[in-house]
Amino acid sequence: MTTADALVSWTEVQDIELVIVRRMHEYMAGAHPSVFQGGGFDFVGLRDWQPGDRLSSIDWSQSTLTNFSPLISREFEQQSTARIVIIADTSISTRCGTQGVPIATVIARTVATFAMAGAFFQDQVGLITFDGRSRQLSVRPQVGKSHAIHCVDAYQDVVLGKKKYKSERIDNTFDGLLRKTSLVPFVSDFLFEDYESLLDELLKLQASHDTFVVIVDSRDAYDMPVISDGWIEVADVETGQSRLLSSSELQQLGDRIAAWQDTVEAAALSRGLEVLRVGTDVDIFHSVIVRFLADRRLRKR
């Protein structure tokens, strides 16, 4: 992970880790029960080796059958009472932003915070990515700091075009991608039309999983500079459709985005889904999301 080609730099990931340790230090003194139960690790199967996997997990005999391209890794699963699977939006709208900070940066920062918090508590952490075309389990849940960083990198790779979606049907359900009961934060800007059916799906997901919604405040991403009177052609990055806006309508775009997200939040709350709003300000972001995680931990004990 380098600053030049990443939404969230390695330095910021380290800062996130320090914030988590500082805010949740009470758990380090043995105040919470062990998250582990059972006899250790269970063998799950074989898969292609991925960056972040331990070299000791490589099945060398199986790798010879593929001429070491790719390497084959043995996958083990640790018996644990805690599992976090982050569902993160990679839609084209997440590339929008101002002053070099796209919406996807806030989503990546949120993924990093949940993943590093999971590593802190020795929880298994996984990642599901979605857009208007596909949903896929990008990273299977595992334990460890390096694996948490792998989740952040996996999200960034999709957004930055380093990794393409596999050909999968859009009607795949999130529940079908979750193998065991999990804590499921759903992170999105919700800048798409059919949000009601998505919220209904999350409500069904809540029956089996601890699901909550994280809305990325996107008003700042659509605050346009003041321009002289006239007409401006704008295009919807999701649909490709274009239309003409007057200069006054362009200035109201940020307000319309905020009103849309308020409507989404109200619809989620009316369904009984818990909602967290996060923005681009880093200090406020850390304060809001880490406090939310700490409060949620206390409530679940």
Q: What would you say about this model in short?
A:
The protein has 301 residues and is of the alpha/beta class.
What would your notes on this structure say?
It contains 9 helices and 12 strands. The protein has helices at residues 10-23, 60-65, 103-120, 145-159, 174-177, 195-206, 247-251, 253-270, 282-300; strands at 36-48, 72-80, 83-89, 97-98, 101-102, 124-130, 135-142, 183-188, 210-216, 231-235, 242-246, 274-278. Strands 7-6-3-8-9-12 form a 6-stranded mixed β-sheet, with helices on both faces. Strands 1-2 form a two-stranded antiparallel sheet. β10 and β11 form a beta hairpin. α1 packs across α3 (103-120), α1 (10-23) packs across α9 (282-300) and α3 (103-120) packs parallel to α9. It is globular, with a radius of gyration of 20 Å. The two termini are 35 Å apart. Residues 27-40 have low confidence and may be disordered.
Give me the secondary-structure topology.
Blueprint: H1 10-23, E1 36-48, H2 60-65, E2 72-80, E3 83-89, E4 97-98, E5 101-102, H3 103-120, E6 124-130, E7 135-142, H4 145-159, H5 174-177, E8 183-188, H6 195-206, E9 210-216, E10 231-235, E11 242-246, H7 247-251, H8 253-270, E12 274-278, H9 282-300
Parallel strand pairs: 3-6, 3-8, 8-9, 9-12
Antiparallel strand pairs: 1-2, 4-5, 6-7, 10-11
Helix pairs in contact: 1-3, 1-9, 3-4, 3-9
Derived from helix and strand composition plus strand pairing, the structural class reads alpha/beta
In angstroms, what is the radius of gyration?
A: 20 Å
Helix content: 25-40%
What's the N-to-C terminus distance? 35 Å
Q: Regions with pLDDT < 50 over 5+ consecutive residues?
A: 27-40
Q: Could you give the order of the helices and strands?
A: HEHEEEEHEEHHEHEEEHHEH
Question: Biggest sheet, open or closed, and with what strands and sense?
Answer: 6 strands, mixed
